[in-house]
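Readers of this paper often ask what the protein records in our data store actually look like. Nothing more is needed to write down the fold, since each code stands for a local backbone conformation. Below, we set out a record of this kind in full and without editing:
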Amino acid sequence: MRNILYFIFIAFLFTTACSENMPLIDCLSCDTETGPPVEPEDRKVVIEEFTGVRCVNCPAGSAEIQNLLSVYGERLIAISIHAGFYANPYPESQYDFSTPEGDNLETFLGIPIGYPTSVIDRKQFSGESDLQLEGTSSWGGYIAQELDSDVKMTCGIENQWNANERKLSVSVTGGAIEAIDEEIRLTVFIVESGIKDTQLTPSGKVDDYNHKHVLRKAITAYNGDVVVSSLAVGEFINEDFTYSFPAEWDEANCVVVAFFHNGGSNKEILQADEKHVIE
């Protein structure tokens, strides 16, 4: 179900930041004549790491992401995308982490020269030739830069888990802090951590390597679903989804990642959120 709820302002926008994860979903029941304005929230940054079980240098990239998460906490959202040749499982692998979405995303965001590599907020930074940031040395600086940037809209997630049916219901809500006069898309991923399986490392193959932030599924199109062609100040978006989990996924270790982003040649992420499937 898709709908846009229009809120008429009776006060100016707040200019000071509020706490993270504003409960936007509550506003769906607000009176449209008296509903509150969209309040600013802290910026969250998405890092999409391209990796693979056959990539000997990729554990260094994964380690750097863990270091960055320890610094930035919930304001940094990590996704590890297994794609390309390096994602081909070994004969002894228990899982195949590659996905059609992952391969499409690698093409969509630019095929890198080598791994480890990442894309941060799907933004091409000044001095960089494309979105892909090979190596790990620049990741922290660009993340800090993005965390200080303005937020044009909010993003919130509400999950409901049906254990009997192993079915997840997701509601994603966003509101415009500033007018956005271009196409807006929404991408929703399911990401799983704590998966023990084979990985090539500088010390050789490790059979019980701890794979984290693994992209399991896009429950939108890989490049996002178009939700609106523009968004005026104070307008809200609400998108609902359901997805049935395969038996081999551990729902206790899964999170939903959602982000609104531009839909044209500029692919930049506007705002993101992350919520555990089971809180």
In short: Residues 155 and 174 are 4 Å apart (CA to CA). The first helix runs from residue 58 to 72. The mean pLDDT is 88.
